[in-house]
Amino acid sequence: MAASAAVTANYVLKPPPYPLDALEPHMSKQTLEFHWGKHHRAYVDNLKKQVLGSELEGKPLEHIIQNTYNNGDLLPPFNNAAQAWNHEFFWESMKPGGGGKPSGELLALLERDFTSYEKFYDEFNAAAATQFGAGWAWLAYADNKLKVVKTPNAVNPLVLGSFPLLTIDVWEHAYYLDFQQNRRPDYIKTFMNNLVSWEAVSSRLEAAKAASS
Amino acid sequence: MAIRSVASRKTLAGLKETSSRLLGLRSIQTFTLPDLPYDYSALEPAISGEIMQIHHQKHHQAYVTNYNNALEQLDQAVNKGDASGVVKLQSAIKFNGGGHVNHSIFWKNLAPVKEGGGEPPKGALGYAIDTHFGSLEGLVKKMSAEGAALQGSGWVWLGLDKELKKLVVDTTANQDPLVTKGGSLVPLVGIDVWEHAYYLQYKNVRPEYLKNVWKVVNWKYASEVYKECK
Fold first, then answer.
1. Where does the Manganese/iron superoxide dismutase C-terminal domain lie (chain A) (predicted)?
2. Per-residue pLDDT tens digits for A140-150
3. Can you tell me the distance from the alpha carbon of B6 to that of A68, in angstroms, rounded to the nearest whole number?
4. Contacts of A34 in chain B (CB under 8 A)
5. Where are the domains of chain A?
6. What's the whole-number mean pLDDT along residues A127-139?
7. Closest approach of B53 to chain A, Cα-based (Å)
């Protein structure tokens, strides 16, 4: 396998599964242009430069993430690799006309593990609101249970031993243009009520269950 | 039972203090948002008035409010002897208290150009900078590089190590004050590299913010701190 082809194949700036203006008015085209077009792009480009000529070159993204996490004593490529992964996961966690309460099996599982959708909402909201500094809040799956996790900077549940199902980016760049005056709580509410793609969460959950069995 | 054991350990002089405390008459020291020593727009074009206003009135104010809340809760936990409650509050205190400490320094680290902002340091600090970093340009280049490379949120600092008697450049994560990197470190200049410090004006281009912020750094204040602490 040619090294350069592997790098290109593995580290690609994939566009979100919707046009950049499709999440308006909840997340503006301007935010997507910067967040995807500049921030996410930079993580991908810098990762490529960083692994070029090293033993990590050509390795799958998740391999790089696991190997550079180093039990929290992060090696240099971790940040770019994890952020490239996190952002692709984030775009796919949202959809136009999304948000609200899920139904079917997903709702049943949320009710089983959080007692109600509302309790899940509160826990996810609290995690996203109280992650000090930059980071992410997640719905994750481990040991046949759903749980809410918050992580700093580029850390994600992959390195903590669980399957990510849903994420919200709470780095300031994710909401600073649309929710001015430091209104992270309003951004979280908008994400939960108007943007979450429960279809994506469901298919990730199926994959996680299959992988665990 | 607690009252009896406290009273038996106190001297007569201490009893008065104890009973005031039990009656809730002692209050903890809380904090208020310091005023900026210049108008919000006075640092333009290096830092926009819009950013200065939001940074001061929303971000710093939030740290002050949340710090005071955490301190009130800490006071209650201490008085109840709630050990795990006290420990649980430490991260909120570090984050919000650090945010208040750091931003209070930051506003003094900046000054409008017509009040000396950007003017190179002279005297003892200027000499020390040249000695340790070769030149002011050398120091600025180093701090800007470290500030740009910082992942996530944090600060880049010029500090004085009082014990080793030398200048240091270091970074701290989130709202950790410089002292968390070493008990003898005194902050002289701190540059906030949280995205909120520059995003509305410079967007994702943090290096551009770092290039421009030096035009309004108040070296006079840094010199005073340096002289006092040497």
1. 102-204
2. 999 999 999 99
3. 54
4. 203-204
5. 27-91, 102-210
6. 97
7. 9
